[in-house]
Specification:
mainly alpha; 46% helix; elongated
Length: 79
């Protein structure tokens, strides 16, 4: 598991995979390519948690948006 832990500290593109963030599908593809073992997406998602990582989803930013107006419209922001 040490190698998987080390690889998750890099971006997928740094290890020859597509994308900028790890997800279960990307990790499953990397493990299959590296070790020849097929793991399911859910199994790889559990691996993230077991290794102390969490899955993150990028937040889209509107090009040239006003940050103050964005803050005012956020669901969790308070005036």
């Amino acid at each position: 598991m040490g190698k998987v832990d080390a690889v998750l500290r890099k971006t997928p593109s740094e290890v020859g995979m597509g994308g900028n963030l790890w997800d279960g599908k990307t990790l499953a593809a990397w493990i299959e390519r590296q070790y020849g073992a097929r793991l399911g997406v859910r199994q790889c998602q559990r691996l993230f948690r077991q290794l102390g990582f969490r899955l993150r989803k990028p937040r889209p930013l509107v090009a040239q948006a006003n940050p103050e107006r964005q803050k005012a419209h956020k669901k969790n922001s308070r005036p």
